[in-house]
Predict the structure.
Amino acid sequence: MDEVESKASEARIAYYVLANLSTESKNKALDKIAEAIWAKRDSLLASNRRDGEESRRLLARGDISEAILKRLQLDEGKVGGMVEMVKSVARLEDPIGKTTYAVELDDDLELYRVTTPIGVISFIFESRPDALSQIASLCLKSGNSVLLKGGSETKHSNKTLYEIIRDADTSLPAGWIQLVETREDVRSLLSHDDLIDLVIPRGSNSFVKYIQSNTSIPVLGHSEGVCHIYVDDLADLDMAVRVCFDSKVQYPSVCNAVDLILIHKDVAGSFLPALVERMETRNVEMRGDSLVCDVMGDRVKALADTDLGAEYLDYIVGLKVVDSLDEAVSYINRYGSHHTDAIITENPEAAAMFMDYVDSASVFWNASTRFADGYRYGLGSEVGISTGKIHARGPTGLEGLTSYKYYLKGSGNTVDEYIGDNKREFKHQPLGKAWMNKKHRRI
Amino acid sequence: MDEVESKASEARIAYYVLANLSTESKNKALDKIAEAIWAKRDSLLASNRRDGEESRRLLARGDISEAILKRLQLDEGKVGGMVEMVKSVARLEDPIGKTTYAVELDDDLELYRVTTPIGVISFIFESRPDALSQIASLCLKSGNSVLLKGGSETKHSNKTLYEIIRDADTSLPAGWIQLVETREDVRSLLSHDDLIDLVIPRGSNSFVKYIQSNTSIPVLGHSEGVCHIYVDDLADLDMAVRVCFDSKVQYPSVCNAVDLILIHKDVAGSFLPALVERMETRNVEMRGDSLVCDVMGDRVKALADTDLGAEYLDYIVGLKVVDSLDEAVSYINRYGSHHTDAIITENPEAAAMFMDYVDSASVFWNASTRFADGYRYGLGSEVGISTGKIHARGPTGLEGLTSYKYYLKGSGNTVDEYIGDNKREFKHQPLGKAWMNKKHRRI
């Protein structure tokens, strides 16, 4: 048994207890964890400085960028933010133990479908240490054990933060949170579909792609966010400029920023000059097809084949003229990544067509693509954004960390009674009540 | 582009149309398909006789069993059953276009989560041809395209049935249903996670296991159903005998039949003689641990290590004495397949403990394990029973063939307004309405 196997096995045993904790116990534990992080912030910041020193050596050698170095640095304000985030998870509604289906199958035979945790969740991240406390909190609130693996640039911070959470003054079952540290551990982890139920990766496209193609464990997340806006012939063009500008420049390095704008041919002549002028105020590099270049000249570069389906994560945007809404929809379904796509139009028919036929997790009408986010959607803290259609799709909150099970309460019922000549018939009557409260919880 | 690739691509294009069909169009198509199957029953029965002749040659060589040969044979009555099944899918509620979350994010910014199909579903089956018409109907009703691969023993029946459905007098988009026929096609199919969204296998344990471990496409189903009953010290012992007997002999060759019965030590002496006597009436082979054998002598064989976690699919059952409910729960979580497990007790506390701590898709109190089934659960026709916890768990109906997407309706909203000093706050008010009706449907 290697290290990952023993840690995942411990996590699975802890999960059986965690799955049945009361909401009160879980919230109390979250508050204790928040307190512990704040109380031990000096030790966390010291570890983070150590990461910083090692990373500066990597920076000097050109192995990492200044931006990465800056992103991994914590200060007291950022630790305060982490603490608030943990506390906010305590205030979220408990997703576990909810009855979502209740049917009387027959007299004295009642069926209930009740939400449960999933089991052991592995969170593999390249990003800042605050992702660790966020996902650990969300797993705890949803009754799941968690197996963490962070990036090597923040290994000291991750280890200290993990120890603070593990050792906080809670009555949680030992082993519910686990940390693995080496690359070999990741390989082992991805092979254990017998012990790990779900992997959540957070990092660069190539990192997420690597995870997705090297495990048979279900993965919740997305590698690419290739987002489009289609400016319809019946668009309010001032609105279109405003929404396109926000979708590109408000935060260009994230998955829900727009990558390519499709423009109906009838409005290209009037829309393009206004859009280009606005984009130029923030030095956005624009790449247009030949029709766009005809209108805008050398203010716009030429769009290459490699730009189709490209995710820029930068101040770059593609521009393309289309003959019709149908062409826009086909283009998006072919080149997009099924993440978030928007239409700007005053025509409700066109909006409905676009939104129904574009096969993406989020489809927007007259709004910035940047709204695609769990917090903005009112889902609470975001677990991730999924571009897959199985289990969870789009921005995913706590609900994405749940499964369910069926509780059947009988009175000695046998299936034999429902077979043959004098067989009983099922009633299948909705029951207007939830599965009973659980009074046996041990903690 | 190989054959699977071109067929799956055609299916994907058809899916974009299928996804947006009205309920009425889909139901009309189902009725037309049902009519076509009945009208062309002679041709289907002729193909089935050809399969029968080829299979009899295999039987003569000992390559297949008499039971398999019998199972694949169709007659007019069975075709009538298939037709009724297709019609019954038309009567099921349409799972697509349902608003499951509706929130006003801010003034004139409304978010709706609406159920959608998944895309292209592949159904790979070893079982009888009626599985083909069942899954094709369920995919159609849920707006999914379907790529079928049946067993070679019924290849003529499958092809004819596929052609009848494909050529029925409907206005469905060409390509929505596809058939592939060779083993090489299966290998190609399992590699195309870019074109196929979900695989549903139906067949033997080893067949399902092979599919699960040879694809990165999500798989809906289960390989094993290792089911347990725990007879508590506070059980009604007459009820326990009745339920155990039904769980074993009512239909032993299916996944939800009981494999091992755990008996609390305090009732073993009185329960075992009654149980064994009842099981002997149907010649059930019983295999007990040493305590059971002490009580029952050579009426019970010895339980071997290989019996722990075994799925018998036959008139065989394991018997084991335990010291406590806790031991029963631990045993089941270790050796079970998380399918269906039951407790027999008059003690509600014990029932709640058992049902909460046993980590299975279905947990029953005083009822036969044989109730674990989509039709009995009132879910309509069953797509499959999942022992995984991602997407769908337990008996799964039409809902398992759905995903969802987020519709956001704005008025030119930008994220920039929600950032900085004078930022707007989100309202996140529930909206008491559904996403608008779609009037643009093309068919």
Q: What stands out?
A: The radius of gyration of chain B is 26 Å. The mean pLDDT of chain B is 94.
